[in-house]
Amino acid sequence: MIAAMTMDMPIKDSLQWVLAYLQWALIYATMVAYLAAGLLFVIRRRRTGWGFYAGGFVLAVAAVIWRGIVLGHVPLQGMFDVMLFMAALMFPLSVFCDRLLRVGAVAADTLLGVILLIPLWFFADTPRPLQPALQTWLFAPHVTAYMVGYVIMAKAAVLAGRSFFREALPPGLRYVPDDEAIYRLVCFGMPFMTLGLLLGAVWGKRAWGDYWNWDPKEMCSLATWLAYVGYFHARATLRRHRHLQAAIVIVGFALVIMTLLWVNLDRIFAGLHNYAV
Asked: Which SS3 state, helix, strand or coil, does residue 44 take?
């Protein structure tokens, strides 16, 4: 029996290595495709750029599916899974914004996709079972709503940051008038942020007995939502102060980053969401 165990151990280790290798091969291939697409968009080879971008999307989706197969559950538990999922969302976001919202900046989207994949090197990718609090039908829609909202607000923040330097940009790199594009994106992203907040409250009631538990992540999520409400208020009352509106969008996304990353650190914030690291 001991001999059988010793022979099984190297086989198990080799299998885990192969699974991890395939996962990272898909991730690296996605990064290369996104970078190539971004370069092609910059030099105005849009058709070829969309081809590489679509190819990167297929690779990213394959990486998400492969991750789900390895885990045996929806791959949205830890930061590794969440960042990978958001990187896969960039292509459909770009298509929707470009074709329906008439908001470009597709090259910036490809760069955002790469930026989302870089932190995967720092997060644990070791498979682990879902905690009891996550074993509910609310898990996937709650996290998905927030992730969609976050990538939309990331694009809005990029445009808000570029709006401060718009006049210095070459004409080919200027977007739809920045304030209008930012407004369209925030209008698009806000329902997802609201849905995530509401589903989280319902989940909190089921998991912890109350709709609101004053958890650090809950507080930061609410602060983020209120920041974007503040943007709408500023746009309605201070229409001429476009840089102030853009600054509020940037502050809102800074709160998104804080909600997504900082409040998960149990050494700083002890809360109910520390399992999400």
From this structure: coil
